[in-house]
Amino acid sequence: MAEETIFSKIIRREIPADIVYQDDLVTAFRDINPRAPSHMLIIPNKLIPTVNDIEADDEAAMGRMFTVARKLAEEEGIAENGYRLIMNCNNHGGQEVYHIHMHLLGGRPLGPLLLG
Ligand code: 5GP
Predict the structure, then answer these.
(1) Which DSSP symbol is given to 61?
(2) Is residue 113, in this structure, part of any structural domain at all?
(3) Rounded Cα distance, 74 and 77, in Å
(4) What is the pLDDT of residues 56-102, one digit of tens each?
(5) Ranges for the HIT domain (predicted)?
(6) What is the pLDDT of residue 115?
(7) Could you tell me the distance, in angstroms and rounded to a whole number, from the CA of residue 74 to the centre of ligand 1?
(8) What 3-state DSSP class applies to 74?
(9) Residue 29 lies in a domain
């Protein structure tokens, strides 16, 4: 069994977070250390440590992450100008929290692909 991270506590609302969306499959909240004017994390409620651990049964949650990203971008007013979705995997990908999460970043020109 994978070890829980702080994100499981956020999903269960055991620690404070600025939750912007939650349903049966996913939760979205603002990043504690925003790297852009809009920086949110969209995560599956189920603990999946890395993208390498995604299984066919997880496809509904993975799809929901994208539809929620689209909805949040619209609500945030960044859909038309554009934004970036990022998922980091393991050490070389720069993953710090081992509960998969999609970064939604926008609100300013983000420049070339890598965040640096
Ligand atoms: P990673 O580097 O794993 O792709 O990104 C992890 C992200 O989670 C970072 O952007 C970091 O700021 C954010 N983060 C880590 N701990 C917390 C927390 O307790 N609350 C919130 N809202 N964001 C967190």
Answers:
(1) H
(2) no
(3) 5
(4) 999 999 999 999 999 999 999 999 999 999 999 999 999 999 999 99
(5) 6-115
(6) 53
(7) 22
(8) helix
(9) yes
Q: Do the domain assignments include residue 114? A: no
| Residue 10 pLDDT > 70 | yes
Which numbered atom of ligand 1 lies nearest the CA of 15?
19
Q: Reduced to 3 states, what is the DSSP secondary structure of residue 47?
A: coil
Structure tokens at 98: 């081992």
Tokens of 60: 């509904």
Total domains, the chain: 1
The answer to whether the predicted template modeling score (pTM) of the entire model surpasses 0.85 is yes
The CATH number of the domain holding residue 23 is 3.30.428.10
Among 35, 41, 52, 114, which residue has the most ligand 1 atoms within 8 Å of its CB, making it the best to mutate? 41
Whether residue 25 lies inside any domain: the answer is yes
Structural domain range at position 81: 6-106
